[in-house]
Amino acid sequence: MPIFNQLHHVCVLVRDLEEKQKFYESVGIGPWFDYPKSGAYLEFDVPNAAASRAMRYKCCDLENFQIQLCDPGELDSPQKRHLDAHGEGVYQLGFEVPDRNAAEAEGRAMGLEVVARGRKTDESGFCYFDTKAQAGVVLEIRKTPDDQKKFS
């Protein structure tokens, strides 16, 4: 199965989470919840760990995928640099995979450069590939923990 086959989420960079959430709710999109940043990572290779921890997210589960609103905050990160350079809008597409490690290896075998990655003890986690120049967005693969799965 191709690694970019099952869309999990679309991530939109924003400057004001509450303002954007209110707009989405005004057009009937909701409810929203805070992204569950939980559990320790065995591996956490990101450009700026403090910036990653400080990012704030609001999520909304629709019938077939999730919308994520991300306020990257003030610390330096790829998301903050993208927001500053291009303004608010879609930053990444996240795809659910059954095996995070195998999907990362497959992406690398395709010649995709990894810009951030994380793996937890339950083998859930993420991997962001540097695809903005080719795809217009960052492509991410992720394995959602079993207790958080909605889209399978």
From TrEMBL:
Transmembrane segments: none annotated. Keywords: Dioxygenase, Metal-binding, Oxidoreductase. Residues 6-144 form the VOC domain. One of its GO terms (biological process) is L-methylmalonyl-CoA metabolic process. SUPFAM superfamilies: Glyoxalase/Bleomycin resistance protein/Dihydroxybiphenyl dioxygenase. GO terms for molecular function: dioxygenase activity; metal ion binding; methylmalonyl-CoA epimerase activity. InterPro entries: Glyas_Bleomycin-R_OHBP_Dase, MMCE/EMCE_epimerase, VOC_core. The keyword Protein biosynthesis does not apply. This is Glyoxalase/Bleomycin resistance protein/Dioxygenase superfamily protein. It comes from Alloyangia pacifica.
